[in-house]
From TrEMBL:
One of its GO terms (biological process) is cellulose biosynthetic process. The chain crosses the membrane at residues 771-792. This is Cyclic di-GMP-binding protein. GO terms for cellular component: plasma membrane. Binds the cellulose synthase activator, bis-(3'-5') cyclic diguanylic acid (c-di-GMP). Tightly associated with the cellulose synthase catalytic subunit. It comes from the Bacteria.
Length: 800
């Protein structure tokens, strides 16, 4: 059934609500004064207690906007036996574009491959609440797969560009499962996967220890949380380091001796050598006890394996497959994947533009080069009578990689139509692949929107369509955020990756622990992360520095290619001494905005465009041009110089050759882009000293409070996948991530014993350096000519 709800918490409305409330506070004279750093513990205003009968869904890398004429989203959801035995309801709050036609747009829910219901979309103008009753047996104990599929049609337009106006946004705070009984009924360690995420799909994890300067104990706890996150399917981990065992949502981890547990106020005191789960109001506490620190190290290392396994793999096969797609592992050479493996389903489509998306993760040492292709073998067909402009276009990471015209007037059915996607189009880490099918007919020009709903299918895509992964070169290129943050740092470090903080404060330790758990999840068990206080040595092979701008030295910033003056100019807050607003509750969205605005600007926050949505703010940014203003003296001079160089063909040609040859030996420094007024976090990489082999990654923000909050945001799967190149910047006001996509400065050999890999690496390097390739061919031809001449010279001429 459906019912309208108030439009105060739709995704677009959240930004308006936050900023309107902030404006009201400022106009009323309510100010959060700056003071010494305070642990974020109490809210400024009272908040309603969380609804424990409602279970939100985990965060997705693909976001929550259903766009175009057909789209889908899928979540793995783990339930305990207590939860699965209850009658449940799936609730969904949706906000759609005004162009979505209610008569022809529907949303369908499937659980574990079984369709349970379909409802019309009437979410334009105000959010729409949809409820699906789940029959007994629909949900299983263990993993389940929830899949939403949307079909949307335009109200008035029938051309292909109008399909980009169709969208429906899912509100993560009000979308999920509702049960009558709020208790979890935990029985085993894998049941930790049943913990509900928060309103944005993040899982709150707390480490409780008495001495915050004990980095060995903190590293031990981070290792346990990393294994829990990886095995139970936590896609967005947020870690808080605390000194007290107060009740809190999510998972709280306490490790210690009996004396330490009593001092911390642990809710349970298990016998040494044991652990116990304590279910409380809105959260669960895992208590681990041992006689001494060595025993704690040994017991903590066992968590996640053997009799203490965390693997949440029971339940339906669809649920296990959905979990694999939520946290994908790298694909190996020789692998064959079908669209069914990647989450797509066979579909018949009668619209104008169908888009099928999936993610493909490649290892951190994948070397992008023109050494081969990933073959996409399409299975499907198209109807007769399509316009000649109809086509299939495949995009990889937003760039066109291959295409296929649908030009046969009689239509066609194919089972193995191969499109070749160059390996150069992919990158280490997560890659987005989109198959777009444009199918227009003469009837679209007449544009009878209601009659079009009953037209026969125009296109068929079968989920047996497959991708064949070839042998690809393995060579780790650095700096590269997308390569290093998905396992490359562990490979560079040879195992353990140290994360340094300048001071052991709760904010900095929480930010470091959050980043450490996220890094450890992508290492796939091939490395570990440790927390340390201080500053790394210049020859540290793969160090991560996490700290507020005022706490990092200019030399540390310069090691990652950051200019301290550039950051100081952008973050010209009243103080950069780490001061934070008092009584900050980091989980409150309004106070998060106050922290971000107070940390990065002297100006009135209301005048910074903060009442726009992220999309509106991005659209409102003026286009910047690298050319001078038309009609200015600089523009006239530039035009004359260009005309003069174009006339001098010889000089122009020699200049291009000189640039190309110089590029073979000296790589010019990539200019760093300016910071926007709302930039809240900067992540950059570089080498402190090229001759020492050290490599540093710096994560910095204007203040400790802004650092803690911004790191929480950046580890979300949709943000984490955007980190690439030498430097990334996160703007908390707009919610956008910008990057400097420079080429790696150096490479790390990861497969030294493989001659086949060396051949692929050499071929890849030559494919990217055509002048070097031509020079080698010329040198080889010259050597052959000299050798031939030398061989023929002694024989002379034979006379009869």
């Amino acid at each position: 059934m459906t019912s309208p709800v108030r439009p105060t918490t739709s995704q677009a409305g959240v930004w308006l609500l936050r900023s309107t409330a902030l404006a009201a506070m400022l106009l009323a004279g309510v100010v959060l004064p700056a003071a010494a750093p305070v642990v974020a513990s109490e809210p400024v205003a009272s908040e309603p207690a969380p609804d424990r009968t409602f279970r939100p869904l985990p965060a997705l890398a693909g976001g929550l906007r259903l766009s175009g004429e057909s789209d889908h989203r899928e979540w793995p959801v783990y339930l305990t036996r207590t939860q699965a035995a209850q009658p449940g309801v799936f609730e969904l709050v949706l906000t759609s574009a005004v162009s979505v036609m209610p008569e022809g747009s529907t949303l369908r829910l499937a659980v574990n491959g079984q369709t349970l219901g379909e409802q019309p979309i009437k979410a334009f103008g105000q959010p729409q609440l949809l409820r699906f009753d789940l029959p007994p047996g629909a949900l299983q104990p263990g993993l389940n797969a929830l899949r939403l599929t949307v079909s949307q049609r335009h109200r008035v337009a029938c051309d292909t560009p109008s399909t980009y106006e169709l969208w429906s946004d899912i509100d993560p705070a009000r979308t999920g499962l509702r049960f009558a009984d709020a208790s979890l009924g935990l029985e085993t360690l894998p049941d930790l996967a049943a913990l509900a995420p928060d309103s944005r799909g993040a899982q709150r994890l707390r480490i409780v220890q008495g001495d915050l300067t004990d980095t060995l104990a903190l590293t031990r706890a981070v290792g346990v949380l990393t294994r829990i996150a990886r095995e139970t399917g936590i896609s967005h981990p947020i870690v808080e380091v605390s000194g007290s065992a107060r009740p809190a949502p999510g998972l709280t981890l306490i490790l210690g001796t009996p004396t330490e547990l009593r001092a911390l106020g642990s809710p349970a005191l298990p016998q040494p050598g044991n652990l116990t789960l304590v279910e409380g109001e809105g959260g669960v506490t895992l208590v681990v006890a041992e006689q001494d620190q060595d025993g704690l190290d040994a017991l903590a290392a066992r968590i996640g394996s053997g009799d203490l396994s965390l693997a949440a793999r029971s339940g339906s096969a669809d649920g296990a497959a959905a979990l694999d797609r939520l946290l994908p592992r790298p694909v190996e050479p020789g692998t064959t994947l079908t669209l069914a493996d990647l989450g797509a389903r066979t579909s018949e489509f009668n619209g104008r533009l169908q888009r099928t998306r999936f993610d493909l993760r490649l290892p951190d040492d994948f070397f992008p080069a023109e050494t081969g292709t990933i073959n996409l073998s399409l299975a499907g067909g198209y109807a007769a009578g399509l316009d000649p402009s109809s086509q299939i276009v495949v995009r990889v990471n937003g760039e066109v990689a291959a295409g296929l015209p649908l030009s046969d007037p009689a239509g066609d059915v194919f089972a193995d139509k191969v499109l070749r996607l160059s390996l150069k189009a992919f990158r280490p880490g997560l890659n987005s692949v989109e198959i777009t099918t444009q199918t227009e007919t003469a009837a679209d020009r007449q544009c009878d929107t209601l009659a079009a709903l009953h037209e026969p299918p125009r296109f068929l895509l079968v989920d047996e369509t497959r991708l064949d992964i070839p042998a690809y070169p393995r060579l780790l290129g650095l700096p590269s955020l997308n390569a290093s943050l998905t396992g490359g740092l562990a490979r560079k470090a040879g195992g353990d990756v140290p994360v340094y903080v300048p001071f052991a404060t709760p904010d900095m330790l929480s930010a470091a622990a959050t980043l450490a758990v996220r890094l450890g999840m992508d290492m796939d068990g091939q490395g570990s992360v440790s927390i340390r206080v201080g500053r790394p040595q210049p020859d540290e092979p793969a160090a991560v520095l996490v700290g507020a701008f005022g706490d990092l030295s200019p030399a540390a910033l310069a090691a990652a290619g950051l200019d301290a003056g550039r950051l100081r100019a952008a973050w010209s807050a009243p103080t950069l001494d780490g001061s934070t607003p008092q009584m900050v509750n980091a989980s409150n969205p309004l106070q998060r905005r106050v922290v971000s605005l107070q940390s990065i600007s002297r100006s009135d926050p209301v005048m910074t465009g903060s009442i726009r949505t992220p999309q509106e703010a991005a659209a409102a940014q003026p286009e910047r041009s690298l050319t001078a203003t038309p009609g200015s003296s600089d523009e006239v001079m530039q035009r004359w110089l260009q005309a003069h160089e174009d006339r001098d063909l010889l000089r122009s040609t020699l200049s291009r050759v000189e640039t190309a040859v110089t590029g073979l030996f000296v790589r010019p420094d990539s200019p760093r882009q300016p910071l926007t007024p709302g930039t809240t976090l900067v992540i950059a990489q570089g080498r402190p000293m090229a001759e020492t082999g050290g490599f540093w990654t710096v994560v910095t923000a204007p203040s400790p409070a802004a650092l803690s909050i911004a790191v929480e945001d950046i580890v979300a799967p949709g943000m984490w996948r955007q980190l690439a190149g030498h430097e990334a910047r996160y703007d908390m006001q707009t919610g956008l991530v910008t990057t400097d996509a420079g080429a790696p400065d150096f490479h790390v050999v990861t497969a030294p014993e493989s001659a086949a890999n060396w051949r692929l690496v050499a071929a890849g390097w030559l494919s990217g350096n055509p002048l070097a390739y031509a020079g080698l061919l010329l040198a080889a031809a010259l050597c052959l000519a000299l050798a031939t001449g030398r061989a023929l010279r002694p024989g002379g001429q034979v006379r009869s």
